[in-house]
Recover the amino acids of this structure.
């Protein structure tokens, strides 16, 4: 399995909880390529990008905890088999949401767009240790602290 260091999570300048990084991306409008701003655990201004910093949270193993499978392993492109008919393989599929009937249709928003982030399905599933599968009960509610992005 691929280790966290292979996706550069130990090479960024800014420390942040995994769920807080997703929140910063969502609150920035979910940009696909453009960088987005966030504050690290020390309050410093930082910038990250979806492809290099957010997407691996869904597509790489061993990030949420040692031995974790990638979210996209179960939430694959096969919507008939993917739990909640949710694919987490890439930007378009993540934004398309859950409960999708087919690949060309949108489903239910997992980000709580228009509502507070803390009311979103994705936030609920992660903060309550329901996802990723097998996540230890004693792991941090917002996931591991990771090092991503750069200081501004």
């Amino acid at each position: 399995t691929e280790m966290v260091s292979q996706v550069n999570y130990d090479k960024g300048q800014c420390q942040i909880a995994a769920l807080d990084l997703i929140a910063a991306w969502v609150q920035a409008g979910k940009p696909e390529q453009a960088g987005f701003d966030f504050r690290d655990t020390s309050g410093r201004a930082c910038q990250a990008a979806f492809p290099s910093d957010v997407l691996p949270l869904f597509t790489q193993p061993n990030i949420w905890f040692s031995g974790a499978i990638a979210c996209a392993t179960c939430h694959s492109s096969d919507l008939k088999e993917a739990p909640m008919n949710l694919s987490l393989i890439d930007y378009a599929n993540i934004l398309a949401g859950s409960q999708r009937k087919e690949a060309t249709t949108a489903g239910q928003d997992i980000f709580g767009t228009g509502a507070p982030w803390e009311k979103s399905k994705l936030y609920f599933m992660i903060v309550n240790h329901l996802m990723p599968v097998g996540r230890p009960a004693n792991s941090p509610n917002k996931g591991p602290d990771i090092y991503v992005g750069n200081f501004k």
Summary: Residues 18-27 form the longest helix (10 residues). The mean pLDDT is 92. The chain is about 25% helix and 10% strand.
